[in-house]
Amino acid sequence: MKIIFVSSEIVPFASSGGLGDVCAALPKALAKQGVEAIRMMPLYHDIDREKYGLKKCDVELHIPLGHAWFFGTVWMQEFKGVTTYFIHSAEFFDRPGIYGALDHGYADNFERFLFFQKAVVKLIDEWNMKPDVVHCNDWQAGLVPMLLRHGLGDYYRNGNEKTLMTIHNLAHQGWAPAEKFYMTQLPDSCYTMNTLEFYGEINCLKGGIVGATAVNAVSPTYAKEIKTAKFGCKLNGVLYHRQSVLHGILNGIDTDRWNPETDSYLPANYSVNNLGGKAVCKAALQKAAGLKADPKAPLLGVITRLVSQKGIDLLVASIEKIVGTGAQLVLLGSGDNYYEDICRQWAERWPDQVCVWIEFSSEKAHQIEAGADIFLMPSEFEPCGQNQLYSMRYGTIPLVHGVGGLEDSVVDYAQKSGTGFKFYGYTSEAFFQCLTRALKAFQNAARWKTLMRRAMKQDFSVVHMARDYIALYEKLLSGNETVD
């Protein structure tokens, strides 16, 4: 079986969240199970060609966007059984960041990723790759199913590849003005209320949802939620129409990369049978964060994008009460300037209890996962989430809002098989009440260690996710799922 992954993000090359993690871990897990996995992504300016051993391929791509033609090159890397092809364009990708700079998305993101998607189809044809399934991820790959079927405009294709559209976050849809449709060079039938047109504009994610052989979301609960008006981001009707081919597969994690027994970022390693190193990690995190060295003080960890989706408003509303409990807080993240400024003010006001790092740092992320006692994920909505999975593996107990993948992966402490703490109802009162429960449980050291060990024994390995995807690929290839 040959699978081609199309994604705008892949760790470690470029990532802004869970999309990059999944598109790194899943193909590697598939390769270990005998699947030929090929990945394709843009070659952004910030990707270090030398560091990652990228080699330029002997192929040139000439891609039409409407009446204009753009030149592209292809680079490649082979690593752990997975081949990754990087599509480069000086016009579109020789600039900072992935989607924009200084908190603003690039005005030509539609053109940038249209070029990328057309280049993917062109490369598939140039090298006669003949994939069994083309696996498209989020809106930046949403037009691939239609392009595979209809071609790039300079030639007719009539492709028969099976396609899977994975929704990592329905809120990001890739809207563009209707007048840009000509750049796709797709037939007029692709711009109707049943295809790309949405409220008078182009909606790239909708195009992937209606054009792909099948659709999946990154957790079973999220697959159900997005068919409702509350979580559907206006696309709930479209998804309801496609519900017969809509699936939910819970994301897994790379347990080699996230392993407290071998993690090189940690000052001490530890395991479910020997937790001694976790206390060392906590002390080291308190020191690095400039917090009071106190093993009995509950240490709360947050690693997040500072945007409203991630529940920052609940933290803003509750921060004084949190500090009043005597708990400490370490936050790592970046995002909206508004939230960044507020979080900095916390650290200035309570320097002995709150540390805020406005940055992206893999090293600090691992150290927070290992050093914290409780990990906070009060997201308003969460397609899957991965930090709650990392946290459990590191014996750091997640506190989550019971939505999406958080609902699917965390069992509340009140239950016999509890692995964390959950609250329902997106309010600061519900959040703080749940935190109060967690802090009370933390005071019983023996029970807390039992909870830690139970959480660490959970198996959310990407291996299980890979098996679920293989089963879905096989279903697509069997012909049991067809485009409506």
TrEMBL record:
Annotated pathway: Glycan biosynthesis; glycogen biosynthesis
Domain Glycosyl transferase family: 292-448
InterPro entries: Glyco_trans_1, GS/SS, Starch_synth_cat_dom
GO MF annotation terms: alpha-1,4-glucan glucosyltransferase (ADP-glucose donor) activity; alpha-1,4-glucan glucosyltransferase (UDP-glucose donor) activity
Segments forming a coiled coil: none
Keyword Glycosyltransferase on entry: yes
EC class (word): transferase
Alphabetical UniProt keywords: Glycogen biosynthesis, Glycosyltransferase, Transferase
Keyword hit for Transferase: yes
Catalyzed reactions per annotation: [(1->4)-alpha-D-glucosyl](n) + ADP-alpha-D-glucose = [(1->4)-alpha-D-glucosyl](n+1) + ADP + H(+)
Annotated Starch synthase catalytic domain residues: 2-239
GO terms (BP aspect): glycogen biosynthetic process
Assigned EC number: 2.4.1.21
Family indicated by similarity: Belongs to the glycosyltransferase 1 family. Bacterial/plant glycogen synthase subfamily.
Role according to the record: Synthesizes alpha-1,4-glucan chains using ADP-glucose.
Protein name per Swiss-Prot or TrEMBL: Glycogen synthase
Source species of the chain: Pontiella sulfatireligans
Gene: glgA_2
